[in-house]
Write a structure and sequence with these properties.
A four-stranded antiparallel sheet has the order 3-4-5-6, covered by helices on one side. A two-stranded parallel ribbon has the order 1-2. It has two domains: 1-43, no CATH class; 45-114, no CATH class. The protein is 26% helix and 28% strand. The two termini are 22 Å apart. It is elongated. Strand 1 (17-20), helix 2 (27-35) and strand 2 (39-42) form a beta-alpha-beta unit. The chain has helices spanning 2-9, 27-35, 48-54, 95-100, and strands at 17-20, 39-42, 62-63, 68-75, 84-92, 109-113. It is α+β, with helices and mostly antiparallel strands and 114 residues long.
C-alpha cells in the first residue's frame, strides 16, 4: 500500500513524510519507506532495548518547554537489521502520580519514543 501511495503522488519537488502511530512500528514498513526515499515519524512501542537505553544514567536529556525533556539515540532493536535514529521525549508525571509510584525506579516520568 505504501508503494502505491508514493507511486501516485511522488514528484521531484515533493518530499513525502509518513506520520504513523505505534501500530506501524515495524522494520519491514520502515524499510519500504526508506527504499522509496521518503521520511517517517512513528510513535514507537516501549521495547526493552529502547527503554534500557533511554533510562541509562549516561544519557543527557535537553530540557524543553512545559517539563518536556528530549534526547536522541541510535540503536538497533533485537530483531532489526540496522541501527536507526530514535528521538526520546519524556514528561514529568503530575505530583499525584509520582507519589503513588515512587517505589518503582524510573517511574517519575512518562517516556515517548519516536
Amino acid at each position: 500500500m505504501i508503494k502505491e501511495i508514493v507511486g501516485n503522488i511522488k514528484s521531484d519537488d515533493l518530499e513525502i513524510l509518513f506520520r504513523m502511530d505505534s501500530g506501524y512500528f515495524d522494520e519491514k514498513i520502515i524499510e519500504t519507506i526508506e527504499s522509496l526515499g521518503c521520511k517517517y515519524l512513528i510513535k514507537a512501542k516501549s521495547y526493552s532495548t529502547l527503554t534500557s537505553q533511554a533510562t541509562n544514567s549516561s544519557i543527557v536529556f535537553v530540557k524543553g518547554e512545559e517539563g518536556r525533556e528530549t534526547t536522541e539515540l541510535y540503536t538497533k532493536l533485537v530483531k532489526w537489521e540496522k541501527d536507526r535514529r530514535f528521538v526520546v521525549s519524556r514528561v514529568l508525571k503530575p505530583e499525584k502520580e509520582r507519589a503513588q509510584l515512587s517505589l518503582l525506579e524510573g517511574s517519575n516520568t512518562t517516556t515517548f519514543s519516536l
